[in-house]
Amino acid sequence: MSNTLENIRNFAIIAHIDHGKSTIADRIIHTCGGLTDREMKAQVLDSMDIERERGITIKAQTVKLNYKAKDGKNYVLNIIDTPGHVDFSYEVSRSLYACEGSILIVDSTQGVEAQTLANVYQALDINHEIIPVLNKIDLPASDIEKTKKQIEDVIGIDTSIAVPCSGKTGDGIDEILEKIVSSLPGPKGVKDDKLKCLLVDSWYDTYLGVVILVRVIDGKISKNMKIKMMSTNQDYIVEKVGVFTPKPKDINELNAGEIGFITTGIKVLSDTKVGDTICDANNILKEALPGFKPSKPVVFCGLFPVDSSEYQKLKDGLAKLQLNDASFSFEPESSSALGLGFRCGFLGLLHLEIITERLEREFDINLLTTTPGVVYKIHMNNGKVQDLQNPSSLPDPTYIKFIEEPWIKATIITPDQYLGSIIKMCQSKRGIQTNLSYSGNRAVINYELPLNEVVFDFNDRLKSMTSGYASFDYELIGHREGELVKMGILVNGEPVDALAMMIHKDFAQSTGREVCEKLKDLIPRHNFMIPIQAAIGGKIIARETIKGFKKDVLTKIHGGGATDRKRKLLEKQKRGKARSKQFGKVEIPQEAFIGVLKINKDL
């Protein structure tokens, strides 16, 4: 069935985490007959186990539905259900580009949250028409008028067309569908023009190879057509064209304004650049679509197998995960303390958590994760600038002019009784307050913070100090110069590279003392005394000592007095201890590394 452009509606569903995006998507699919009662399950678009368990959406998903409106016309609805979490905002931005409008879902019991703001501003930036939807009206705590006022005050959107609904009971779903066809614009595009197509997403399928999600802007894409990817300049033949209803369904062609998928026999995900323009190989476009900014890893950490024989297993696991998630990177790394492993880059801490959990669960690998760190820019005296991901590879400080660290702009929305403790925490993290406004009894605070201070535990501490009521969102705003130093940890005079960290000068001493105290408790005693030191360059800033075992070598000598024999035995013991200290190796157990990594979370 060929569709006229005015009868197509492409829209994204945006909201904060847990405000009911996926549940409302389920209801719309069910109402439009996309799946029968028997085939329906909760969060039908969240296909990964980890998405279903955590109740979050990680990958954006699409569905094509047919809807007969009350005016008797048949419409085609293309829904994109987007993730709500800050780490996956790159997924959101791509999804929005493929649509003309958005449904903004706000939980009527909780009101506007930080992530709601971030996603709405992204949609407004690309001139989306927005329909506000107030979800969870079946709950006794729901307050529709207050939520409407909050949307108007905080976001500045007119709420006269807002639709109250409940994803749980299904109330208001018909009104949402009617609003979609009456208020959202249809796609613009020319059917008979040459092919212009946006590559929205791609993932690896075991049977089909790489599946590419596309939005056709002009022209049409059909089976057996020869297409060109403009960024790589490669030609491919389209083997399969289809749509998700939400089950994959093969069709012959996708026309202007439509969203669907194609396969071309590509085997490697890196050949498909997200945001690329696809055109007809026999009728090439003069210029490509603007596309998206590539997603850049902002948090780095080392992943090491607890059992070194699992190194190959870990390598295979990372390669397989990268097939479906091109946004994280990894490269081999070796550490004298932890053996062979990988240095991995992630979009944020939740992304890191999900990748490590998937490695442990899907590939059955026991992992050890080093302290997460960010990417610093090192400005050298000779004018060169280099990126530093791992503190242990910092060049000699005499060659460094200055070091820059990444900063973020954070938006925190909180009930006002927690405001004092949040401001205190942000100040302790070197934050600069830029704005504070109120909507009812909720405060919206903007802070500029160094990412390094946020990366460990900021979100956890924010949630615990506000009983889970505050929400937090951030965006990167670039690098700034900082008084940063590399703090190394020496055990028995030997540097332990896995425990090196970049830290602000003001916090170095207290953190160094804390790490030394923790290691003193965690490293077992040896036959000789072991000094544990925290050092910046050649300067020791903290020290603890683990006493050695003492054997009484004088027990077999009877009688009192300091005889030559006693003195000889004590001298011999002293020489033995000195030799064992010189040649003895200090075994640092795994628990010691894990314990030190936890310190950062407790500071």
Could you explain how this protein is built, in words?
Strand 31 and strand 32 form a beta hairpin. The N and C termini lie far apart (61 Å). The protein folds into five domains: 5-183, P-loop containing nucleotide triphosphate hydrolases (Rossmann fold), CATH 3.40.50; 196-280, Beta Barrel (Elongation Factor Tu (Ef-tu), domain 3), CATH 2.40.30.10; 299-374, Alpha-Beta Plaits, CATH 3.30.70; 377-482, Alpha-Beta Plaits; 486-602, 2-Layer Sandwich (Alpha-Beta Plaits), CATH 3.30.70. The strands form six sheets. The protein has an eight-stranded antiparallel beta sheet with strand order 11-10-16-7-8-15-12-13. It has a six-stranded mixed beta sheet with strand order 2-3-1-4-5-6, with helices on both faces. Residues 42-60 have low confidence and may be disordered. By secondary structure, the protein is an alpha+beta fold. Helix 7 packs across helix 8.
List descriptors:
5 domains; Elongation Factor Tu (Ef-tu), domain 3; 14 helices; 27% helix; alpha+beta; single chain; 603 residues; eight-stranded antiparallel sheet; Alpha-Beta Plaits; Rossmann fold; six-stranded mixed sheet
Short recap of the structure:
The chain has 603 residues and is α+β, with helices and mostly antiparallel strands.
